[in-house]
Amino acid sequence: MPAKSRFTRLDAFTKTVEDARVRTTSGGIVTIASLLIVLYLVWGEWADYRRVVVLPELIVDKGRGEKMEIHLNISFPRVPCELLSLDVMDVSGEQQTGVMHGVSKVRLSSAAEGGRVIDVKALDLHSQDDVAMHLDPNYCGGCYGANAPPNAIKAGCCNTCEEVREAYASVSWAFGRGENVEQCEREHYGERLDAQRHEGCRIEGGLRVNKVVGNFHIAPGRSFSNGNMHVHDLNNYFESPVAGGHTFTHEIHHLRFGPPLPAADAATARRAGRGSPPWTNHHLNPLDATAQATDDPAYNYMYFVKVVSTSYIPLGAGGPTTGLLSDLVPLGRHGHGDDGSIETHQYSVTSHKRSLGGGSDAADGHKERLHARGGIPGVFFSYDISPMKVINREERSKSFLGFLTGVCAVIGGTLTVAAAIDRGVYEGATRIKKLHQR
Q: Which range (95-104, 156-165, 313-322) has the least confidence?
């Protein structure tokens, strides 16, 4: 038997003779409509194939010895920059007080004058600006009974008012306005402080800390340790000639742990000619645009933050890596991978506020809530590190094979339904024609 005859028996697609085919106007309309539907559905399948989705995955965070960046921008309209200090501590034993790399103090005019920017100064102790260039090279200022700071410009001496303040802090002495201190009177420290009394201050920038449980706080006066207690020199803060005194009314413009996400701003994404990445819809910083107001100088705000490590792996990237979190990466580039991956952090927060004079929250409708007396006025952020890590990985919503399968299903299903509709229309028209001929 010839090969052609054997395959002929297996033909499931029988043909009709051309003369036996009937072409109708309704059939042409159904054909055009079905082709348009097929094109529309195939385009939908293509768009679905090109769509990128984010698949979250929860794992145990196995990172060790990593660093974490904290970026903040907080305004204090009723405390001058001369009185504010930023302290960072963690449970690993490292403590850095007063100054952190990458953070600046921005002097602001009073709220009545619009809060405009007056001056910006980086928080950097013993910069060249602190050196009194006109002094005799052999000059050695006294520290007034305190020990000279180890990082003094001239070993064993206190040549500037800042060094005297630091020497006082090292032995837990209150400093005040620097009366009868030669260095401070020469630099007009008291006059400079009085000139800023009506100003505000904005703390902005970034700092790098160990990725362990810790806290950072913004409080008045220079900080020092008294026994096992961390305290601040509050004399200049409470002894204020300003009516109503200084208060820690503040606004948190921005606070994030780790690098920002790319094109999180919709306007930036539109300028780039594309939509925002799919993960920006759910990665938000809950403390952004948070404002707190008080008229009580002795008032304390506490924010308890739970930090969750989060990896964002774009389409085509390898996977999460801990090399992005080493201390060798420059500030601001921490957590960014060359393949577009990002190692950052999300956080949740609860807040607590109280008057240092104690009492209840009856004014806020909580008579049952009682507060103890004492403490330090300021804004405190206590952060805890979650042992879990979230990995958000970009993937195609379907594979190319799935796209081809969808296209075949669209074409086959549409043509089958179109054939049934055309058959129904043709049979109906034929029966109506026969009824009219009777």
A: 95-104
- pLDDT bracket for residue 405 (50, 70, 90): very high
User: Which one, of 58, 40, 46, lies nearest residue 396 by Cα?
Assistant: 46
- Confidence bin at 436 (pLDDT 50/70/90): confident
Q: Report whether 195 contacts 254 (CB < 8 A).
A: no
Q: What is the mean pLDDT of the chain?
A: 78
User: What confidence category does residue 121 fall into, taking pLDDT thresholds of 50, 70 and 90?
Assistant: confident
Q: 267 or 333: whose pLDDT is higher?
A: 333
